[in-house]
Structure formats: C-alpha cells, structure tokens
Amino acid sequence: MLDVPHWPGHRAGQHIDIRLTAEDGYQAQRSYSIASAPEDDGIMLTVDRLEDGEVSPYLTDVLEPGDELELRGPIGGYFVWDASLSGPLLLISGGSGIVPLRAMLRHWAAARPPVEVRLLHSARSLDYVIYRDELVGLAAFEEVDVRIALTRTWPDDWLGQRGRIDRGFLKDAAWPPRDEPRIYVCGPTGFVEATAAALVENGQQPNTIKTERFGATGG
Amino acid sequence: MSYLLDGNAIAGDLFVVFGREMSTVVGRCRKCGAEFPVAELCVYVRAPGTVARCPSCDAVVMVLVTIGGTRHVHLPALEFDE
Known about the structure:
The complex is a heterodimer. By secondary structure, chain A is an alpha/beta fold. Chain A is built from five helices and nine strands. By secondary structure, chain B is mainly beta. Chain B has one domain. The mean pLDDT of chain B is 92.
C-alpha cells in the first residue's frame, strides 16, 4: 500500500512505474498494475515475487512501512475500464494478471453501474488464486459471476473448470458476440495470446478485446 | 521464456518522450500499412534497448534506448496521424 502525495487519481486498469536506484547509480525500472480502485484510499500494488528478479524481491522482502519509493504514474489509457462504459463486462486473467482486473471489479462494486460482470480466472491451484476471499465476496453480487479454472491441481469436489481456459470453456462462459461484451484479457504473454485467439475463433469481434501482457522481464 | 510484452509496458517511457499518453494513439506501420493502438505493439524489453514490432508484419517499428540518462526514441517504420 502506497501513500502518494499529490496523486491525481487513477482509472481502473492503469499501472505505475517503480524505479530503484542502487548506491552506484545503477537503475532498474518495472511496471506494476494498480490493484486498488479509484475510490479506494491509497495505492495498492500486488507484486509477484520473481526469484531472480531485480525489483520484485526488493519490494516484497526489503521494503518496509515508511520507506520511500520513486514512482511515475498513473500510466496507460488503453487497458482501462470506467463504470460509465456500457456492458456486459468480461474479465479474463491468468495468474497475477488478475491485478488490474481486481481494480476494475472494485471500481464496479463502488460505482454499481447497471452492468453485468463476469471474471474468468486461471490459476495453477486454489492456493495460487490471488484475492480468493475477496472474489467470493464479489460473487455474492447478483450481477457478478466469478469462474475459476484450476490448471494443475484441484480439490476432489472441485466444480469449476479443471484445466486451462480454452475455447470450449470460453464458449460456455463468455457472452455471445451479439451481446457485445467488453472484454479485457490480462496475464502472461502465452495465456493472453491463446485466450485472445480462442475468443476470436468463437466469433468475438477483435476490436472488443483489450489485452495486456505480463511478462518475466526481470521482475 | 518469452520476453514479449506489449505497448502498455512502455507507456510510461513514451509519456516522458512524447509528453502525452501514447498507448491509445493509433500508429501505422510503414512496412505493411497496418493500423493499431500503440498498446498493441509487440514489445521486447530484453533486447539491447527496447524494441517494438508491428503486431501484423513483425517489422521493427520503434526502438527505445537510454543514453546518458536520457530516453531516445527512434521510429524506423511507425507514423502517427495525430
């Protein structure tokens, strides 16, 4: 959670760039999606710690409350959703790709526009589902539907998708193209490309699909 | 492991260079004529410098490098109407 003086406010889906400078002047910069809604207090980031990363281990292991960071933002005007936009809203994420979509869901919950929302989220196992309790809470809204796909291991009584988010799952879980869903896909590059291709094969219009790729860029 | 990202990842650097939010700006590839928002560029951040390719024909359309602490943008095959 960051307290940013003079923060101009952000839109759900935007990110910030964080820059770290070593004592010898070496700099490393990474982009992180904002996990909090515009209506939330403070700026919340969710950082996926990469073992050999330059920035994420510092943020997760070294940084302490009260420390200062150099950041730039809010950034991005493409992968953003605003409650004034028409629906339905289809959010699809893999792994930590859920972070900007969580901001959109929280924005929806704060603004409560007459828009139906569906989140399709893919994770290795139940333990890897970020914001699990919060997602359960959001699913209690009548307009919100959360569907989880577990790709590697699942409980014996798991009723959700077993395996990847594929064309068949998307056919069943996505609104048909005639309903003109507004679609956001975020996750690792391979996930985003496979999902976007499957959506188009299922007849969704490419110009209704917005994508953002998360990558192992040195973390 | 792929180091392919997209134009969203360089929006901050482009803001500094162009002085505005660039991810929604539509660019045109001079090699194949395809038009796309900057956010949809294929961006390789692990090249020497950052390389952005056309999502349609894979031509190198933009290169970002830092020299002496200053960001420089080279546009070998990308043009904007705006």
